[in-house]
Amino acid sequence: xxxxxxxxxxxxxxxxxxxxxxxxxxWALHFVDGAPLTLCTVIDxxxxxxxxxxxxxxLRARETxxxxxxxxxxxxxxxxxxxxxxxxxxxxATPEQGGTRHRLGWHDPGGDAGGCGGGQVYGGDAQGYGRGxxxxxxxxxxxxxxxxxxxxxxxxxALPVVLRADDGGASDAVLDHLAAEVAVDTPGQQVxxxxxxxxxxxxxxxxxxxxxxxxxxAWWAAQRDPVVGDALRLLHAxxxxxxxxxxxxxxxxxxxxTLAKRFADLVGEPPLTYLTRWRMTLAADLLVExxxxxxxxxxxxxxxxxxxxxxxxxxxxxxANPSEFRGSRRPSPAR
Length: 335
Hints:
alpha+beta, 5-stranded mixed sheet, 13 helices, 12 strands, globular
């Protein structure tokens, strides 16, 4: 397992709703949920994405922008539009907001602009909005992603508030599939749309990390190194193994001093320090997701035979002992 695959595995679309209908300028859609990650891509036409507290971004056909929450954003026909912003959130899927008028993949090139922003649908973990084929029409697809657990939060920490991927590259093929899929209503479409959004997000992030002159996280570049990349894959594939620098060096085919220096130079910390932080990240998710697991169970799962040693390491890295951390992440009881 490579680092990127591990970090993005908790970021998944599930139950996305799509629609394509007509909106005539002026228009403004205010996305109010502040999702941890939101992908916005234009199939055709253009519009302006206005993130909260940041300058507007022009989004043309075949371009994609990813917005990191918790800030909200608005998508408008033009900066300074006279349109009254329509709030788009979970309420857009309720009958009184027109949400039930649409089915998955429903296409209405001549529909009115009534309801919640012209009949767009919002719900589940990813949402789609669009306009039909009228003059100046824009087809926008928006996927809002929840981020599950501490593992995927490490990916968020590596991203700016707004990142852009221009047209071209691997994501073009995904856009073609998305454009075709949202225009029909066929069995199995829900799964197809969810997976296409996931594919689109992965392509967008990879292209952004690989852009020339970009500020990519240390682990992204380190994955490409023949020695450190192998070491990272081993640590992620076998985090509970009794690793030492010597053992890791032996598996990667270099001396202990060579591995230690190259790892620290590329990743920014020694191999075993990285391993400890990764183990504590895994442990944090296990503590929250597995209610019946004891601290000793979690300790063994991440490579500690001694629960007291694990608790000390967890508190040093996370700032709270395992029991305190688990209690702080439990939902408050309903009143």
